[in-house]
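#lab-general

N.A. 3:47 PM
ok so I finally got the sequence cleaned up, no stray characters, all 73 residues accounted for. can someone with queue access submit it? mine expired

B.Y. 3:52 PM
send it over

N.A. 3:53 PM
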Amino acid sequence: MGTLMAAPTYWTARALREQGSRFYRALGEALEAADATNRRRLYAGWTDEFWDFYGRGLRLAELEEGGAGRAAE
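B.Y. 4:20 PM
back already:
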């Protein structure tokens, strides 16, 4: 929970919206709009799912950053 709460929500929410079902897309929207208290509630209720999409978000970030680095070469 600490890792999820400390991490920026952008990449997790993006992974939920881009890679998830309609339900997970809605969770991504909710995550992006949530304040800290409501983020904690979301994470507590769906810890495994958010952890999965957190990992997917990290991979998306790595791909985008790697692609941006290659474009500059």
